[in-house]
Amino acid sequence: MGHPEATREEVIAAARAAQCDDFIGRLPDGYNTLIGEGGVYLSGGEEQRVSVARAILKNAPVLVLDEATAFADPENEYKMQQAIRELIKGKTVIIIAHRLSSIASADKIIVLKEGQVAQEGTHAVLSRTEGVYKNMWDAYTDAFQWTLTR
């Protein structure tokens, strides 16, 4: 869909770069499997990785990714982050995200609060500077320490 004239080899290369090859190989007809209505359904994370493969195939110079890992479980999130790293090489990218792990490696982070720019900078700077981002990052990292007790 991202590039109708693409060769099969280009499609497969984009799918591999987007971390899709593993689940495509398990589909009944591999790359020829019908997806969606009348076919096989993919998980939310798999659908997101297919979207990244399409974007890789399209090779647009500017990308807007809106909550690209929002519906991914931890395994799919990791694979999505790998795929996105491949996708964004040499491009201008705007990533809209609530999941901070999705943006920690960004060149510039802009934090919005109530429609206004509250902070901007890199993760390294913002995570050490008192403010909205540090509060969100601390809450995010503190959650890794949570345990269930009886």
Entry keywords:
150 residues, two-stranded parallel ribbon, alpha+beta, 40% helix, globular, two-stranded antiparallel ribbon
Detailed description of the structure:
It contains 6 helices and 4 strands, in the order αααβαβββαα. The chain is an alpha+beta fold and 150 residues long. The strands form 2 sheets. Strands 1-2 form a two-stranded parallel ribbon. A two-stranded antiparallel sheet has the order 3-4. The longest helix has 15 residues, at 44-58.
Q: Quick gist of this model?
A:
This protein has 150 residues and is an alpha+beta fold. The chain contains 6 helices and 4 strands.
Fraction in helix: 40-55%
Distance, first to last CA: 51 Å
**Biggest sheet, open or closed, and with what strands and sense?**
2 strands, parallel
Number of helices: 6
Number of strands: 4
With strands numbered from the N-terminus, the spatial order across the biggest sheet is 1-2
As a whole number of angstroms, the C-alpha radius of gyration is 18 Å
**Mean pLDDT metric:** 86
- Approximately what portion of the residues adopt beta-strand conformation? 5-15%
The arrangement of helices and strands along the chain is HHHEHEEEHH
Pick out the low-confidence regions: none
* Helix/strand/pairing category: alpha+beta
The gross shape turns out to be globular
